[in-house]
Amino acid sequence: MRENIIKTKSFAFAIQIVNLNKQLCVEQKEFVLSKQVLRSGTSVGAMVREAEHAESKADFIHKNAIAQKEANETIYWLELLVATEYISKELFEELNFKAVELIKMLTSIIKTAKGLNKT
Questions:
Q1: Angle between the N-to-C axes of helices 89-114 and 57-83, in degrees from 0 to 180, rounded to the nearest 10
Q2: Global pTM value
Q3: What sections of 1-119 are H helices per DSSP?
Q4: Within 10 Å of residue 83's Cβ, how many Cβ atoms?
Q5: For residue 77, is it left (φ>0), alpha (ψ between -120 and 50) or beta?
Q6: Which residues neighbour 85 within 8 Å (Cβ) at sequence distance 6 or greater?
Q7: Which helix (H) or strand (E) holds 29?
Q8: Is the CB of residue 68 less than 8 Å from the CB of residue 40?
Q9: Which tens digit of pLDDT belongs to each residue from 30-75?
Q10: How far is CA 34 from CA 8, 39, 49, 60, 81, in A?
């Protein structure tokens, strides 16, 4: 059986986001922004999982589109965290790279499902 790359990468991303949330809460006593990034960052993988068992092609596309939006929202919270000096530029760049990678993968999945990736 082939590895589901989007499933694997979105789960690994969620783990990093959970660890970021723990760090922000424990070390910096920051609870509002950390909760926002936790919700959107872990939602990406949750929506990818939901899409696995979509009821229809339209449902599959919709769930992946929501995952894409959640990844984009996560980037916003990460930008805010780095701008307010809650996280380092290096950590931001690492997590931002991974979020952008997920968005690109999800975009490709959505386009393929819609039949837009024909060569």
A1: 160
A2: 0.94
A3: 5-28, 32-52, 57-83, 89-114
A4: 10
A5: alpha
A6: none
A7: none
A8: no
A9: 999 999 999 999 999 999 999 999 999 999 999 999 999 999 999 9
A10: 23, 9, 23, 29, 9
**Token pair listed for 111:** 């386009």
- 11, two tokens: 């789960």
Amino acid at 61: I
Measure the CA–CA gap between 84 and 25, rounded to whole angstroms.
Answer: 15
CB 69, CB 28: distance < 8 Å: no
In this structure, the chain runs to a length of: 119
* Residue 36 to residue 40: CA distance in whole angstroms: 6
Q: Which of 92, 80, 71, 72 is nearest to 30 (CA)?
A: 80
Query: Residue 73 contacts by C-beta under 8 Å, 6 or more apart in sequence?
Result: 40
